[in-house]
Structure formats: structure tokens, C-alpha cells
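Hey, resending since the last one bounced:
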Amino acid sequence: YSSKGKRLVFVAVEHISSAKYPNLQEHPTLKTINDLFRSMKPELSLIEGIQTGSELNPRSILPQAENCKQAAYLGDCGESSFVINKALETKTAFLSGEPTDQEVVKVVTQHGYETKDLVAFYLVRKIPQWKRQGSLKNDVLDKLAIEQLERYRKRIDPTLIFSFEDFKRWYAKNMPKPQHYAEIENDDPAPHGGPDATFVQKISNLVNLARDVTLLGRIEESLARFDRVLVVYGGSHYIDLEPSLMKTIGPPELKKLY
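The C-alpha cells again:
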């Protein structure tokens, strides 16, 4: 998008997967980001999946980004860490496009769900990501799930009592398919607000709404402050935001670099 001296590039990414690309430096997503830092020279990058609020260049995320760099972005890493490290290399700014946990909790609970539903949903959504990243080798799913569930519980509601056994009972009640949580795929927790949406898909839809509202606001604020803004987010977010972006900055020029 270009208008009145402003340039916005929205990379509607396919999330990186070592299952498809053992050498992630050859992944089309990372190659595209790398090229854009050379050609576009963004002044600010808006990044998916880091909960650091509206803090510019948050230092709290730097150790994770460095660990991912050392691990060649394998394991529980994604393109967001790659973007952070490119921003550090080029001495440019970066910013989360995500709402705070409290903002998401407010939206979800206003629609009648409980904090345990949100905690369980986050674990359900994480399982396909682990598969994509090749993290589920040697029957480690339950161990990872227990650790991740505790992290989500502390983040979302530290007063909540919700064990892995509680999650299994919640899953049996609210997710009739797939029969076992190990079989969850990307479509199962995908956002869906229609009448045939599952319990988990309805929660996902609310979470997505909170995220898209925040991201759009950050894009508009960033364009008011910077001339060249790069957004690196999953493709579904671009689809949701495209009509609003066209109103904000005009029609896009669509390109596929790789």
C-alpha cells in the first residue's frame, strides 16, 4: 500500500515449518522478510505473537529472539523472532501488534466464556503449531502440554485451578472431534463465528476479533508516526483487515516474491 508518502507492506505469511523446510533460511517467508529489509528498509515492523503491549522495541523479548537465532529458528520459534533480529541488525524499530492478555480476557468473558476456556483454547491452538515446527518427536506432547498449560494459566488467571487432567475433561466435553487432542490440526481451532462453529472455534473467533482490532489500531498509529511500515502476520489476518486497510491507505499492489 502506498499513499501520500506513506508505504505499508503487509506480509501475509505462511508460518514457518521445519517439516517442509529443514533449512528454514530457505523458507519463502524468511526469504521474503529478508528481501524486504534490504529493498523496503522499513522504519518500523509490526510483529505477531509477542505480548509486549504498545512498548516500542521491548527488551523483554530480546533473549527469546537471540535464543531462536542461535537455534536457526528451529523448535518453538517463528518468523517473529526473525523479524526482531532483522530489526536489531538494521537498527530499526519493532512493535507488537497484539492485544494484552487482559484485553483478550475482557472480550472473551463478555461473551459468556470463562478464563479456563481461554487457557484451554490456547493449548488446543498450540498443538498444530508444535506439529508444524517438528517439536512433537519422541512422545513429548503431554510433557509440553503440561508445561504450556501452566504458562497460560499464570498469564491469563493466576488464581485459576486448572490442571492437565482438568484440560482432558474440558476437551472431552467441548471438543467431540478429533477424539484425542494429539490429532488436532490447524482447522480445528480456526476462527469461525457461524451457527455451525464449534465451541473452540467460537472462542477463536473472539480472540481473533480482539487481535485484529488491536493490529488495525497499531497500523494506523504507526503510519501516523513512520513513513515505511512492515507488518508480518498470518495470511488470515490480512484477509480480515483488507477492507479496513483499503479505507485507511487505498488499494494494495499484490505481489508474491517466492
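The longest helix spans residues 199-225.

Sorry for the duplicate.
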